[in-house]
Write a structure and sequence with these properties.
- The structure holds two protein chains of two kinds.
- Chain A is α/β, with parallel strands linked by helices.
- Chain A folds into three domains: 201 residues, Rossmann fold, CATH 3.40.50; 78 residues, Ubiquitin-like (UB roll) (Roll), CATH 3.10.20.600; 91 residues, de novo design (two linked rop proteins) (Up-down Bundle).
- Helix content of chain A is 44%, strand content 12%.
- A five-stranded mixed sheet of chain A has the order 6-5-9-7-8. A four-stranded parallel sheet of chain A has the order 3-2-1-4, sandwiched between helices.
- In chain A, helix 6 links the parallel strand 2 and strand 3.
- In chain A, helix 2 packs antiparallel against helix 3, helix 4 packs across helix 5 and helix 14 packs parallel to helix 16.
- Chain A is globular.
- Chain B is an alpha+beta fold.
- Chain B has a single domain, classed as Alpha-Beta Plaits, CATH 3.30.70.
- Chain B is 22% helix and 21% strand.
- In chain B, the strands form two sheets. In chain B, strands 1-4 form a two-stranded antiparallel ribbon. A two-stranded antiparallel ribbon of chain B has the order 2-3.
- The chains are: A alpha/beta, B alpha+beta.
- The interface between A and B is medium-sized, with 17 and 15 residues.
């Protein structure tokens, strides 16, 4: 059996030879992957469409459709489009985009060059989180851009820009506003970035992992890409796995792989698994182990893949305390622009904290549910919606624990050290 | 073509005039910010809807011709 990089069913794809701590150089990258054949722009868009590639930043929007929207606005509004590589991975439980930028930046830059060609852009802006968390990725991408300029000039100019390492920065309109010299906070839409983005030009904002897949789709073709994964969500995907698991880290798996295989089954089922990060949903442990990591399977459990962050909560952690902490974090990550988000998330976080402390009134859970329903859909961005999704699955999956804290106050596990990370992302080694 | 009411949540400062002028379509949440009924505005409410939009001190209440 063919075991070379062209074997369609072999894993890893993106992370092939990306083990260890180093950054793959341009020479190593070309040796491993081969040169990119120059393709016709139309053929690039068609290949991505045929592959069925969906964005890996969380929304799972078809990448080719997004490119076509940019192309349509190019002719309608005029102005050469700009491509923005969204590396603003502000989610504390996701590090997969940073991992790609650190280890295989050329795969990401190949993808960016290809979509730039596809939409007719001559300028690519790679965004990377600022501060300590993003330093290694900044350096790796910066060096990769220099290597490419020296050895094989791309069609488009590429610049690297560091952006605030905050939860909301990766929201498209926030990223665009930051690149236009403003604060990295969401704007009221329309216009959407594909209509009027960086420098008022039609702008394609694309996630890092999405672009890495593009680099392989153009090399190997749509059929190769579809040889793994489900019909609705073809291909492999990167999952950031953390919490009560055997092997935390970034793993490349076939879309649809049961979560049990990802979490490790030796230690039994966790209490619950958070799928899709802090905008995602909890799935109770026994169900999660049997559920595939793809949107069709997860829909039955009220969850979705999001950006592929998977966190297992161990039996020794207090779910109510953990949920209260994360809600407090999400309230603090509101950019303070929209009243329902500012006041609603603060009230929700305070009430959840009161439940964990045993100081809440009898109607506290009903109040949380009502506030959740009230604020969903009422921000300029999806931050409150994501927080409410996290809240409602918490109330559903941990109903017994919430009830217990309401009646009897803090439990023994409340005193355990916090389990879910908030704030700057801890390094996930592998 | 139907008209829908939409709030710009960034500019809205919870003055609450809209809920007084158009209670048929707008009520306030626990913090005084408007919750809007997203259904199309019927003809008989159009004059009230326009008045509510014009009365908003921050011009955050929008009448849009297409659903968003």
């Amino acid at each position: 059996m063919n075991s070379g990089p062209n074997d369609a069913t072999r894993l890893p794809r993106l992370l092939l030879q990306a083990r260890g701590e180093g950054t793959m150089t341009l020479a190593e990258h070309l040796q491993l992957r081969g040169e990119l054949a120059t393709s016709d722009p139309h053929a690039i868009v068609e290949a991505i469409a045929d592959a069925g590639l969906r964005g890996r930043g969380g929304a799972a929007f078809p990448t080719a459709e997004k490119m076509r929207a940019v192309i349509a606005n190019r002719s309608r509004v005029g102005g050469r489009p700009i491509v923005v590589v969204n590396g603003a991975e502000g989610e504390p439980v996701s590090v997969k985009d940073r991992f790609l930028l650190e280890r295989v930046p050329h795969l990401v830059l190949d993808g960016a060059a290809l979509v730039a060609r596809g939409v007719g852009a001559r300028r690519v802006i790679v965004t990377v989180p600022d501060g300590d968390d993003g330093r290694r990725a900044q350096r790796a991408v910066g060096q990769a851009v220099t290597e490419r300029a020296q050895h094989r000039p791309d069609g488009a100019s590429v610049e690297v820009v560091s952006v605030p390492d905050r939860f909301v920065t990766g929201e498209e309109s926030a990223l665009v506003q930051a690149l236009n010299g403003g604060p990295a906070v969401p704007t009221f839409i329309p216009p959407r970035p594909f209509e009027r983005g960086v420098e008022r030009r039609p702008t394609l904002v694309s996630n890092v992992e999405t672009l890495a897949h593009v680099a392989l789709i153009i090399r190997h073709g749509p059929a190769w890409f579809r040889a793994l994964g489900t019909a609705g969500h073809p291909g492999s995907l990167l999952a950031t796995v953390s919490g009560a698991v055997e092997r935390p880290g970034v793993w490349e798996i076939e879309s649809g792989t049961p979560l049990g295989a990802l979490l490790g089954e030796r230690s039994g089922s966790p209490r619950a698994v958070l799928v899709g990060g802090y905008f995602g949903s909890w799935v109770s442990g026994d169900i999660a182990m049997e559920t595939g990591l793809d949107n069709e399977s997860l829909a039955h459990a009220g969850a979705s893949v999001g950006a592929g962050a998977v966190v297992a909560l161990g039996a020794d952690a207090c779910s109510v305390s953990e949920v209260a902490r994360v809600l407090g974090y999400l309230a603090g990550e509101s950019t303070g622009q929209c009243g329902p988000c500012v006041h609603g998330l603060a009230a929700i976080a305070a009430k959840a904290r009161a439940i964990a402390d045993g100081s809440a009134d009898l109607h506290a859970v009903n109040q949380l549910t009502a506030w959740g329903a009230d604020i969903a859909g009422r921000g300029a961005c999806r931050h409150p919606d994501g927080a409410v999704r996290f809240l409602s699955s918490s109330l559903r999956v941990f109903a017994a624990e919430f009830d217990d804290h309401m009646r009897h106050g803090p439990c023994d596990a409340c005193l355990a050290p916090p389990s879910l990370p908030i704030g700057p992302t801890p390094a996930l080694t592998r | 073509m139907s008209v829908h009411i939409r709030v710009n949540p960034i500019t809205c400062e919870a003055h609450g005039l809209c809920a007084e002028l158009l209670p048929e379509r707008i009520h306030l949440d626990d913090w005084g910010y408007p919750i809007v009924d997203g259904r199309p505005v019927p003809r008989e409410l159009m004059a009230h809807a326009r008045r509510a939009a014009e009365a908003c001190p921050t011009l955050a209440l929008l009448l849009e011709r297409e659903p968003r």
